[in-house]
Amino acid sequence: MSQKDLKRPPKALRKGKWKNDVNTQKYQESLYVLKQKEGKWFLGKCLDEYLDKRIKRYLDGRGNEWTATYPVLKVERVVKNGNLRELILEYMEKYGWENVRGNPWTSLHMEGPPRDLKKE
User: Fold this and answer.
1) Within 13 A of 95's CA, how many CA atoms are on the CB side?
2) Mean pLDDT over all residues of the chain?
3) pLDDT at 63
4) What is the per-residue pLDDT across 8-54, written as a single tens digit (0 to 9) for each?
5) Is the pLDDT of residue 1 over 50?
6) Rg (CA), the chain
7) d(CA 105, CA 88)
8) What is the dihedral angle through the alpha carbons of 111, 77, 39, 99, rounded to the nearest 10 degrees?
9) Quick check: 33 and 43 in contact, CB under 8 A?
């Protein structure tokens, strides 16, 4: 694969434009679920060709504030082309919003559950 093939896709493609104008096969995304110490979880997404590097960065302790505070133990699961927001909310319902982070909820100290979380 050439260096040109490894470049990031155009910004318009990442924002959902040009869907029929470019070969989107090489720009598929994966969601990843990282299990952390103290029963914490971090969920994210990235392009498939960067998945190994991204996960290695978290395992090496070079992630964000959440993953630095609660080190990653293992990769729990990888999902192809899923909905990150829905998956994060699913994990928040199952494990508690205090124990799960991922975009757009990345703050180490959230004051309360996300509005999108189902009320019980």
Assistant:
1) 19
2) 83
3) 86
4) 555 555 555 545 544 555 678 999 999 999 999 999 999 988 999 99
5) no
6) 16
7) 9
8) 10
9) yes
How many residues would you count in the chain? Answer: 120
Give the whole-angstrom CA distance, residue 120 versus residue 107: 23
Predicted pLDDT at 2: 46
C-alpha 118/C-alpha 109 separation (Å) is: 20
Q: Is 25 exposed, middle or buried (0-12, 13-18, 19+ CB in 10 A)?
A: exposed
Domain boundaries defined on the chain: 28-102
DSSP E strands in the chain: the ranges are 29-36, 41-47, 72-80, 100-102
Q: Which long-range contacts (CB under 8 A, 24 or more apart) does 84-92 make?
A: 84/31, 84/43, 84/44, 84/45, 85/116, 87/31, 87/33, 87/43, 88/43, 89/114, 89/116, 89/117, 89/118, 91/33, 91/41, 91/43, 92/117
Give the largest CA-CA distance in the chain.
Answer: 52
